[in-house]
Amino acid sequence: MTPLLEIEDLHAEIEGGRKILDGLSLTVNPGEVHAIMGPNGAGKSTLSYVLSGKPGYVITGGSIRLAGVELSELTPDARAALGLFLAFQYPLEIPGVSTMAFLHAAVNAQKKKRGEQEMTSPELLKRVREIGKSLDITAEMLRRPLNVGFSGGEKKRNETLQMLLLEPKLCVLDETDSGLDIDALKVVSAGVNALRAPERSMVVITHYQRLLDYIVPDVVHVLAAGRIVHTGGKELALELEATGYAQFQNEAA
């Protein structure tokens, strides 16, 4: 099987020279859901930023390939068009831009980049309404400026709507459970699970096992000191919840 995501000996630092990732390797096959857990400061969110091409994060060694294409020299929009989606821990607010206008721009920007026919406003609205029903996305939310004044749950549901609409090859979820109550967590998880497919993979970054009760992973990794130090099945998340990360931090030292 050809991996969808292949990271080999990845080294990265923040501009200014502080090393964050230190020889991280990870292989994710099509259809798999991988969870990445680890202590604060281990490099979990940095991994998501490096994958998406966020400015200020510099790759100093190794490689990242998505569907066989090297990502390191691609711009963030080119990575998105290739099929990468990053769900932020703290989704951005964009005053003055309605949620619907943002969705229209995002969808058609990707289609244009891939040389596909763009969606008309009526086509997009119909699709958004279909998806939005399952996420409790109201017409009023679609008219509001993107994420402005939204609760934590509304922001995450809105981001899940984006993900369902764009249908990426690789979904990277950076602490999607952050700030969610149990009801919002169930709604968001159901939306994420609706995207599970043989051709699509997910990397779920989280501190807590709670999220993995709802988005059940195939593989769990422990990230410490900038690299993967332990890998196991979904039962590893329960072990980490009970024992913490101390033993794995010692391994990474």
UniProtKB/TrEMBL annotation:
* Annotated keywords: ATP-binding, Nucleotide-binding
Q: Cite the ABC transporter domain residue spans from the record.
A: 5-250
- Molecular function (GO) terms listed? ATP binding; ATP hydrolysis activity
Any single Pfam family the record assigns to this protein: ABC_tran
User: Which residue positions does the secretion signal occupy?
Assistant: none
The family annotation for this protein states: Belongs to the ABC transporter superfamily. Ycf16 family.
**Protein name (Swiss-Prot/TrEMBL):** Fe-S cluster assembly ATPase SufC
Q: Which organism is it from?
A: Xanthobacter tagetidis
What lineage does UniProt assign to this protein's organism? Bacteria, Pseudomonadati, Pseudomonadota, Alphaproteobacteria, Hyphomicrobiales
Could you tell me the gene encoding this protein? sufC
